[in-house]
Amino acid sequence: xxxxxxxxxxxxxxxxxxxxxxxxxxxxxxxxxxxxxxxxxxxxxxxxxxxxxxxxxxxxxxxxxxxxxxxxxxxxxxxxxxxxxxxxxxxxxxxxxxxxxxxxx
Length: 105
What we know:
2 strands, two-stranded antiparallel ribbon, mainly alpha
């Protein structure tokens, strides 16, 4: 049996076979959640910048997708619209994989 680290887990009184704590009784000792106002100024700025970058990429991907002809999109455009709205990786994946080169340019 592999011993579990004691410092990351807090066990309850639930006992399994031979007095061992069950897996359901182990809980991670995570730090308390903090609100945005409790973060330091540097972290607040980083969160805001990350949000601005994510929204900018999403709107740019949706705008490009709306203006791009169907023949120049790889795959269905509605699927790329949903993928672009999921997170920043969706928008980046559209720009990398979802667009075909325009033969006129």
